[in-house]
Write a structure and sequence with these properties.
Length: 214
Amino acid sequence: MSRVRVHNFSVSLDGFATGEGQSLEAPFGHAGERLHQWFFGTRAFHAMRGEPGGGAGVDDALAGTWGDGIGAEIMGRNKFGPQRGPWEDHEWTGWWGTNPPFHTPVFVLTHHPRPPLEMEGGTTFHFVDATPEEALRQAREAAGGLDVRIGGGPSTVRAFLAADLVDHLHVVVVPIVLGRGERLWDGLEGIEDRFHIESVTTPGGVTHVTFTRP
Ligand SMILES: NC(=O)c1ccc[n+]([C@@H]2O[C@H](COP(=O)([O-])OP(=O)(O)OC[C@H]3O[C@@H](n4cnc5c(N)ncnc54)[C@H](OP(=O)(O)O)[C@@H]3O)[C@@H](O)[C@H]2O)c1
């Protein structure tokens, strides 16, 4: 059976994976870019944007595994964009431009389904109103035997963890305190019992924690 993986999921010391006040100009709300500074310097991030350069240290080695063996992604509607309620702007096609970095089918969970969006480079966004189990069934079918990545945001990752559908979770703890936003861990008390856990702190100051189903 293909595995369900979460990668490069950045949380503040107080457990927030995004700030408050998400908007078109501020995808992470008041958190700004602070949760992902560790990632921007890596070769993996540069490659994701089709750019040369970037550091090749431990952060990069861990970040770079996000795409290996992935055949589909599932994300929540708020990771796709800041619109809420019925879609008013069908022209806007997500934060990633015409050629998004996913290059696979992407299943966007939403209570407001709309026709699929076929982008350049192999990414097609499918908008589905489904339980995590049903969305995963569809994503697995589309992934053709490869793994499925849960891309976030925090409420979507939390729902898949609560349903015990995640096999590998890579969290990056960033030494900042956000104070408000959307938490990852709420309702997941004792989750550590289900996983083998390892952690490493890199010179940049973030701690990578991996939760792997034994
Ligand atoms: N820290 C990180 O590494 C990281 C990674 C990815 C994203 N993010 C950030 O996280 C934020 C978004 O996270 P979030 O927790 O606010 O939202 P989210 O998980 O992206 O999306 C939640 C929304 O998806 C829809 N949805 C979720 N489950 C559903 C289901 N089973 N059926 C139907 N619809 C469903 C609902 O929207 P509707 O009811 O409106 O349709 C729900 O409000 C953004 O700021 C993004 O930039 C952070």
